[in-house]
Design brief:
The protein is of the alpha/beta class and 220 residues long. The chain contains seven helices and eleven strands. Helix 3 (76-88) runs parallel beside helix 4 (103-115). The mean pLDDT is 97.
């Protein structure tokens, strides 16, 4: 098994025609992630690579694809609105890659997402990957291998280093999660550790903290 995403996860890419969004959407598709649509206002009706349809709004995208997950690659000033649009459209798992989202914006996002019954990962995070099944975000698939070690980290680059060293040591991963290092984020260490605890196929967890905040102490 795994946590948060698996081979049945269906994904909408918000900002799919931008530089970062298009690059990482291609990487996700090549990895085998079920990318079922993208959203860029004003470009609805166009097609992305592999015939992935582009929609003007998240409501249109969810209504026509039935997606359950979104990943956000939009500029910082529009990220909060993108998160809330996804939650309002019925998306239950939202991964915000965007860095530099204003903290004041996130104070509005947090209660809204909770009210809608959605889970937010990020912002300012690398996303997550369930090796061999699905990746949502920017974690390189080539450094991961399927297994039973969970990974959770606040640091993007340290996430990659942990995963790389585990793979080199012959220790595969169940799911690798980057929760992001911003002051206000959606999913905490505790949330992720509880999910791993409830996953019968995760036998151990590698956790990497970062300077700032008290998340590590609370998790301990």
């Amino acid at each position: 098994m795994s946590i948060f995403i698996n081979e049945n996860t269906t994904v909408i890419v918000q900002g799919i025609t931008g530089r970062d969004g298009s690059f990482h959407a291609k990487q996700m598709i090549e990895y085998g992630t079920r990318v079922v649509g993208g959203v860029t206002p004003g470009k609805g009706g166009q097609k992305f690579e592999a015939g992935v349809p582009i929609f003007n709004t998240m409501h249109d995208a969810v209504q026509q694809t039935g997606a359950n997950t979104s990943v956000i690659y939009v500029p910082p000033m529009g990220a909060a609105d993108a998160i809330m649009e996804a939650a309002d459209a019925g998306i239950k798992f939202i991964v915000a890659i965007t860095e530099g989202v204003p903290v004041l914006d996130m104070t509005k996002v947090h209660p809204f997402v909770k009210e809608k019954g959605a889970r937010l990962l990020g912002p300012n995070c690398p996303g997550l990957i369930t090796p061999g099944k699905s990746k949502v975000g920017i974690i390189p698939g080539r450094i991961c291998t399927p297994g039973n070690i969970g990974v959770v980290s606040r640091s993007g680059t340290l996430t990659y280093e942990i995963v790389y060293q585990l793979t080199r040591a012959g220790l595969g991963q169940s799911t690798c999660v980057g929760i992001g290092g911003d002051p206000i984020n959606g999913t905490s260490f505790i949330d992720t550790l509880q999910a791993f605890e409830n996953d019968p196929d995760t036998v151990a967890v590698a956790m990497m903290g970062e300077i700032g905040g008290t998340d590590e102490q609370e998790a301990a």
